[in-house]
């Protein structure tokens, strides 16, 4: 099943990118493995998948340790006291949304003598159930982050509302892309847009996603 699902998702990403006049290679598939075990991860690796996403530190710990050669993305809400469990195992943090977390990442990175790649999470929908900065607070937050020399801001992330018609989600993805473009600075590459999941990743790619986070469309 995974083989067929992977081919279908790849084909849908390619088609969506081409409709938008984009290079399909500019879109990275992140396989979300929070509901699957070691065998499924191994199978995915055998198919060529190299980027995996997890959103719970404790639940993913053994999985991340068992497969250190792939790129692990932390895509969930990150508590500051869990940073020590995330670095250096994860290659990209998708959910930087407050200065207290930036301070914890900075401190841990200094201790490990590394630079942390991170995306700033923006709550474009305004839903109270979702984490992330409000769009209005993004410019000031980015300015403050630039003083943290151990954090490299790579772009933005959002979680759109879950709606029956993916077309209804399009404005949220477009808004995130516009925020990225508006807040780009010459000295900082806000190149990444992590947006789109199983139910809406096609629209996300059409609107500029560089990373899509896919779980059930791959693993069932």
Condensed summary:
The chain is an alpha/beta fold.
Structure description:
With 220 residues, the protein is an alpha/beta fold. The chain has one domain: TIM Barrel, CATH 3.20.20.10. The chain has 9 helices and 8 strands. Strands 7-6-5-4-3-2-1-8 form an 8-stranded parallel β-sheet. β4, α5 and β5 form a beta-alpha-beta unit. The longest helix has 18 residues. The mean pLDDT is 96.
Topology:
Layout: H1 2-19, E1 28-32, H2 38-46, E2 51-54, H3 57-66, E3 71-74, H4 83-86, E4 92-96, H5 99-112, E5 116-121, H6 138-145, E6 151-157, H7 170-183, E7 192-194, H8 201-206, E8 211-214, H9 216-219
Parallel strand pairs: 1-2, 1-8, 2-3, 3-4, 4-5, 5-6, 6-7
What key attributes describe this structure?
alpha/beta, 17% strand, 8-stranded parallel β-sheet, 220 residues, globular, TIM Barrel, single chain
Low-confidence stretches: none
Given the C-alpha coordinates, what overall shape results?
globular
Which radius of gyration do the C-alpha atoms yield?
17 Å
Work out the count of structural domains.
1
Reported CATH architecture = Alpha-Beta Barrel
The largest sheet, given as strand count, sense and whether it forms a barrel, is: 8 strands, parallel
CATH superfamily: Alanine racemase
């Amino acid at each position: 099943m995974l083989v067929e699902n992977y081919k279908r998702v790849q084909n849908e990403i390619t088609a969506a990118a081409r409709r938008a006049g984009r290079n399909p290679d500019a879109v990275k598939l992140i396989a979300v493995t929070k509901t699957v075990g070691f065998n499924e991860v191994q199978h995915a690796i055998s198919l060529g998948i190299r980027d995996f996403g997890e959103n719970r530190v404790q639940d993913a710990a053994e999985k991340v340790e068992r497969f250190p050669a792939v790129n692990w993305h932390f895509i969930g809400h990150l508590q500051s006291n869990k940073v020590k469990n995330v670095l250096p195992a994860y290659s990209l943090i998708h959910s930087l949304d407050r200065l207290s977390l930036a301070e914890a990442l900075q401190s841990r990175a200094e201790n490990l003598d590394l630079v942390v790649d991170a995306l700033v999470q923006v709550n474009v929908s305004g839903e109270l159930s979702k984490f992330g900065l409000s769009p209005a607070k993004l410019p000031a937050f980015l300015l403050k982050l630039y003083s943290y020399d151990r954090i490299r801001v790579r772009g933005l992330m959002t979680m759109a509302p879950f709606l029956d018609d993916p077309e209804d989600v399009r404005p949220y993805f477009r808004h995130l892309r516009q925020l990225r473009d508006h807040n780009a600075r010459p000295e900082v590459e806000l190149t990444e847009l992590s947006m789109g999941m199983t139910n809406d990743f096609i629209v996300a790619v059409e609107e500029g996603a560089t990373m899509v986070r896919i779980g059930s469309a791959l693993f069932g």
